[in-house]
Write a structure and sequence with these properties.
Radius of gyration: 20 Å
Structural class: alpha/beta
CATH architecture of the largest domain: 3-Layer(aba) Sandwich
Strand order of the largest sheet: 3-2-4-5-1-6-7-8-9
Shape: globular
CATH topology of the largest domain: Rossmann fold
Order of helices and strands: HEHEHEHEHEHEEEEHEHHEE
């Protein structure tokens, strides 16, 4: 799902005749070159929507609080809205990280959240997390997912505010709370602990509509992230290929995503990306749908 903010053009206008909105030239930066590079080099588009997914304890909250603090220091209005940790817990974490200027709040109702974003004229907001967001309106699970996703995208696009949403993984390696939001946003980020160094985090941008996608490795210390890219012997392109080979080698017999995760320790959007790549290349075959779908290497 993509929420359109202008009139849909059905006239097949030539690209050279379409006027590019000035918002594309109004990106803003954090002041950390490698961090801005992670989002394509130009920084943040004013109406960007993105997700950040990682296993518990990887450093999602720390990373996003630090990004907000950097932006506060440049004059941007930010907020961290949590439906999980209370503001006292967030303040405790913030103190450890040296984060002092970021406004914190506890909210879960999507209508209240979007109203607060608009009323406060925020530039960059983090929602923690998607599974914690609710609605006062009565609706089933699928309707709720669609309603929340629509409101996040609509608010970001119409009011030119960056909205980042934290996602969690299930034990089977899929997104908790559905896949509609990650399919709808502009940018998906997956963070994993580096296999060779516990203090490093592999940050994989698996989709970016407004820039390049790739991998950046940051060091995480007791005081948070350095946001200076770490060079390692195993370059991102080689690393991704190695993971693809590991997955391919594991599929000598049909396996579900949960079984692949257990055997390879590759999960989430990164795993989904590799499986799509291997399927498109004709190296593996998919049978079935959803969590019961199986994948097997073609002989």
């Amino acid at each position: 799902m993509q929420v359109l903010t202008s009139t849909t053009n059905k006239n097949f206008t030539r690209a050279s005749e379409i006027k590019i909105p000035d918002i594309y030239s109004r990106r803003f930066k954090s002041g950390k070159e490698d961090l801005d590079g992670m989002f394509g080099g130009g920084g943040f588009m004013p109406n960007l929507t993105f997700t950040l997914a990682a296993a518990p304890g990887t450093g999602k909250t720390s990373m996003l609080l630090q990004i907000l603090e950097l932006l506060e220091n440049t004059g941007k209005r930010t907020a961290y809205i949590s439906g999980e940790e209370n503001v006292e817990q967030l303040a405790f974490t913030s103190n450890r990280l040296g984060v002092s200027r970021v406004p914190l709040a506890n909210m879960t109702d999507i209508d209240d959240i979007c109203k607060a974003i608009v009323d406060n004229d925020f530039d960059f907001v983090v929602l923690d997390s998607f599974p914690a967001i609710t609605s006062k309106q009565k609706m089933n699970k699928k309707q709720l997912e669609e309603y929340i996703t629509t409101n996040i995208i609509k608010t970001a696009k119409q009011h030119e505010v960056v909205i980042g949403t934290i996602l969690h993984f299930t034990k089977s390696g899929t997104y908790k709370g559905g896949t509609l939001l990650p399919h709808s946003v502009d940018c998906n980020i997956v963070m994993n602990r580096n296999k060779d160094d516990y203090n490093l985090r592999d940050v994989d941008v698996t989709k970016n509509r407004f820039g390049s996608a790739g991998t950046c490795i940051f060091e995480m210390t007791p005081r948070g992230f350095s946001f200076e890219a770490v060079e390692v012997a195993d370059a991102p392109s080689t690393k991704k290929q190695n993971k693809a080979d590991v997955i391919l080698d594991s599929l000598s017999e049909p396996k579900t995503i949960e079984q692949i995760v257990k055997q390879t320790e590759v999960s989430g959007a990164y795993l989904s990306s590799i499986l799509r790549q291997l399927t498109a290349e004709g190296k593996i075959e998919k049978t079935g749908r959803g969590v019961n779908a199986t994948f097997v290497r073609k002989s």
